[in-house]
Design goal:
This protein is about 80% helix and about 0% strand. By secondary structure, it is mainly alpha-helical. It has one domain. It is globular.
């Protein structure tokens, strides 16, 4: 009883990230994020399920649903880039802000928050330009043509031109996360997801008197959900977040803070931008072998998000804990956080591996386009790609550790090596040797390389940073 009272008194003096036992703290912070990320993954899957059922006039031998899936798949690299700028900036803001709170530097924490909001606005302007002027060009670069080109241009223009919602949502959710208020962040993400899921069939198929907008309807449902979530995130920060004060009256960009943000966040942006290049390159290679294989690749990405997104939720809970305790010089809590995060991530990936190996056809039939090629091409693809789950959990958590401790360049090294130096060259070579029968093996091969490099760099981080902190 006395210990509980002492703990409560200590918590009152210090932020909970420095005193609450790690299992309870990480679970409490990560669980809401895992749920919200899982819901986001589900609404991405639902989005594609509705898109796959679109009917239209197309050339013989294809289906509108397959063309729509191809369009969503070819839009995905640009969406990845859009998300990369938002999440990369927020990773930097989160790390700077949480470290400042751990050091009891309120002034720097508030400056990080205000500059983060400013940078979110800059990101929106950039992608507004991309969406309005370059959507068609980006799809042609990936080999898109015909109906897929039409669908893609509509989808991407709407998503980019209305990205103010997603960027506002990103930054204000991260302000909640960085101060340990992940439950509120979960509410905002759930709000956006539910609105998106409800509006999808209404806008896509023209229900309740709405016009039938097809793929454009899916994009419109997405941005409306994002804008609603953003509004809620702003309100919750104003009402509930007492640790950080956002006030843009008389604001001027602070170059010193922005530099710190991007020292951590820029490698994350580049990593995800590399992912965009990888996806675009794979779309190009696959469209040269079989156009329908792009739809298979799209479906794979939607399905794997059901297992990767929860791990990103764990990451979101882990980063402020690591950064705070790094600033507070508490080594034991840092090590506990890393170990427990890896255990959680492994369990998610093990489930994903099992499902990809045991029931790939069942998973693919969720996206029934009426075209048998999706099943014929997709079953062997999922079974082969599924092997990379067995190593991905370690690589993802290690990369987040690098970023949280201010060594985002290590994450960049791993990402460049995996996706540009191994995955794409190997995929190209295998496509030439054995076509679609071999190309999917490029994913497990690249992941094994990533595992080796991540293990070595994590050992360096432990020896040079973590181990030097007094126990």
């Amino acid at each position: 009883m006395e210990q509980d009272q002492e703990l409560l008194q200590e918590e009152a003096k210090e932020n909970k990230m420095g005193i609450v036992p790690i299992p309870r703290l990480l679970t409490g912070m990560a669980f809401p994020m895992v749920i919200s990320m899982l819901v986001q993954a589900c609404y991405n899957v639902v989005d594609s399920i509705f898109v796959a059922k679109i009917k239209d006039d197309v050339a013989a031998g294809g289906s509108a649903g397959t063309a729509a899936l191809n369009a969503v798949g070819m839009a995905f690299p640009v969406q990845m880039l859009l998300v990369a700028f938002g999440t990369g900036t927020c990773v930097g803001v989160n790390a700077v802000l949480s470290k400042a709170l751990g050091e009891k530097d309120q002034k720097t924490a508030d400056r990080a928050a205000n500059n983060g909001v400013f940078l979110a606005g800059c990101n929106f302007i950039l992608f507004l330009i991309v969406g309005v002027f370059f959507s068609g060009t980006l799809i042609r670069m990936q080999g898109g043509e015909g109906l897929a080109l039409t669908y893609h241009t509509q989808y991407l223009t709407i998503v980019c031109a209305c990205s103010i919602g997603v960027y506002t949502q990103f930054i204000f959710e991260r302000l909640l996360q960085s101060t340990g208020r992940t439950v509120y962040s979960m509410f905002t993400q759930l709000t956006g997801a539910v609105i998106n899921i409800v509006l999808d069939p209404i806008f896509i198929f023209g229900l309740f008197g709405m016009p039938e907008m097809k793929v454009a309807g899916a994009a419109l449902a997405t941005v409306i959900g994002q804008i609603c979530a953003a509004i809620l995130a702003v309100i919750l920060n104003a009402k509930k977040n007492t640790d950080v004060h956002v006030n843009l009256r008389g604001f001027r960009p602070n170059l010193k803070i922005i530099k710190k943000v991007y020292q951590v966040g820029f490698p994350s942006i580049v990593m995800q931008a590399i992912g965009s290049v990888m996806t675009s390159s794979m779309n190009r290679i696959l469209s040269g072998l079989n156009t329908d294989s792009v739809a298979v690749f799209t479906v794979y990405f939607k399905l794997q998000s059901l297992f990767f997104m929860p791990i990103f939720g764990i990451n979101n809970g882990m980063v402020p804990i690591l950064a705070y305790n790094y600033g507070a010089r508490k080594r034991k809590r840092m090590v506990q956080t890393i170990k427990l995060s890896m255990a959680y991530a492994f369990l998610f990936m093990l489930v994903g591996f099992g499902l990809f190996e045991l029931i790939p056809e069942t998973l693919l039939r969720i996206f029934d386009t009426g075209d048998p090629s999706l099943i014929i091409l997709g079953v062997p693809a999922l079974r082969i790609i599924g092997f990379h789950f067995l190593a991905a959990w370690f690589c993802i958590i290690s990369g987040t550790v690098f970023q949280a401790l201010g060594n985002g360049v290590y994450s960049l090294i791993v990402s460049v090596a995996r996706q540009l130096l191994v995955l794409i060259p190997v995929a190209y070579i295998l496509s030439r040797i054995g076509g679609l029968d071999l190309i999917w093996w490029s994913f497990p091969i690249a992941e094994v390389m990533s595992l080796c490099v991540s293990s070595y760099l994590l050992f360096r981080i432990y020896r040079k940073i973590i181990k030097t902190i007094p126990a």
